[in-house]
Amino acid sequence: MKRFLYELGESWKIAVAQMRANMTRSTLTALGVIIGIVAVTLMGTAIGGISIGFDKSMAVLGDDVLYVTQWPWKVVDDWWNYRDRKKIKTEYAEMLNRMIEKTPNSNLIVAVPTSSVFRSIKYGGNQVDNVFVLGTTSDFIVTSTIDCKEGRFFSDMESRGGASVVVIGYDVADALFPSESPINKSVLINGQLFKVVGVNTRQGTFLGLFSWDSMVAMPLGAFNKYFSAKPDSDVRVKVKDKTKLADAKDELTGLMRRVRGLAPEKSDDFSINEQQAFKSTLDPVKNSIAVAGLFITGLSLFVGAIGIMNITFVSVKERTKEIGTRKALGARRRTILLQFLIESTALCLLGGFIGLSFAYVMCLGIGKAFPSFPIQFSVGLVVASMIVSVMTGLISGFAPAWTASRLDPVTALRYE
Amino acid sequence: MDTRDSIRPRGPIVIDIENITKDYVMGEETVRALRGVSLNIHRNEYIAIMGPSGSGKSTLMNMLGCLDTPTSGRYEFNGKNVAEMNDDELAAIRNREIGFVFQTFNLLPRSTSLRNVELPLIYAGIDPETREQRAAEVLADVGLGDRIHHKPNELSGGQRQRVAVARALVNRPSIILADEPTGNLDSKTGEEIMALFEDLYQRGNTIILVTHERDIAAHARRTVHLRDGLIESDHAGFIPEIDMATVG
To answer: What is the assigned CATH class of domain B45-66+95-246?
Structure first.
């Protein structure tokens, strides 16, 4: 064991001396690994970022909220069966709430109606197009992870009275009110003035997925008054205990069937969705991006590994006589194997370290330049890429190191 | 005949070779490099192995140095059967029992004298302090006490060979096996190295000198001649009439 440690120490010294002695060669070889590690690491951060972006967007939906909709949240092959379903009406929410109140030990808390359209919104000379305008009740905040950065969500009173007030998203506020507080200012939507009572905290957008940043919310009464043209309506229902989501779903299905007055033999003419369903349609997308990305960037690391293997072979060839001498002096096969493995691993580690530093700087740069892109440089990634570097070194160095360890000492000594 | 040693008692047998052969297969042909060589070498002998090229001299040296194993025959090193050892066991024998001195010195070019001499100790698993101390001692012994931090390219040929000798000695081996140790040196430096060997011999070391140079072989106390894979003559001292005549 002791001897192994001494040999290990010796091998490290030799490896460092070799790298110093062949500066240009080592640098060029390491460059292959550097590029590989930079590519893989950046891909890793991008994948991490995508994942976080997805999760953030998912969080908007809430993991304890059920969505009653006409269409299910998945790709359907028999779309014609869904097309003719009756629309979901906002009135269902009130009916559901009445039934929930009468049910003892209900798994559901409250039903909230939502209607939405896309409209332009104006203040002074500024205008934002295609804003997601949501009409709902004050209970909406119960079902949502939304927070107000300034002001507040509209109140129960405003909700019932259908007051002309709005809560606006961060990006909307930013665009309309670049230099002043939007609170108590009146914005123009569809030719109608609405008073801003609150601004949402920034949520961040990702890949065009839905974000609160680019929406406005107003009481359903006001919404129905001014946006009568066929809005999309859903009902979202907050669940008491998210571990009993399946029970809640069954209960809600029963309630909805009563609302719709469906005979027992008829199948549901509505869909009940949850965040998880959406996630499971998005996850394969996320995963295939990850696999494809890592495969392609992995190729560049592979090329780097071949460079290492090549240079280690050259090194073995060049130092055949030295290997012979070492064997004559008592180096065992294992010693020689270890020496060359450590040389290739040291090169890879060096490359990995430099590559990681580059990647880190690049990530900082990207983070500064595009603050909205969710980039994630984690300790796990550092550890992972260092492990990848070491593995690359070991794998690419093995064949040459093995060759070296098997050299016949007589032949090696005679080699010129 | 050299009479200085005739009164010395012979030490125990270090190398005991009996009827060893070595065949090399080269394509279709089998070259019989050694055809049955028997040889005993005692502790504190100073022996020269001579022979023209192709005589099997190098092959015998590789056998003696445990760099290679014979095709047949018996080889015992300090009573251990070497002929059937595997690579790692042979490496251990080379490390502990044999000190090599090569014609081309074979020093690691980028390492200091000290590091070069330490090398066999690393393979022997000696701790760093002892290693350094012993390497420095041996370097001082060969007259390089002030050159321990020099690299080979900062040393003269004679000094390099002294480093190599120090490296051969550092693990206190049973034999020192020198292959044409003066082959790359001018005659004056060569004589200095031979004087060093004489000194080592006087201090009790066992030295095997492989050479084709008569002047160098003349330093040994026993001369073995090889020809065509067989021992042609084996006698004490260096007898000009025999040894001058037979060397090709």
So the answer is: alpha beta
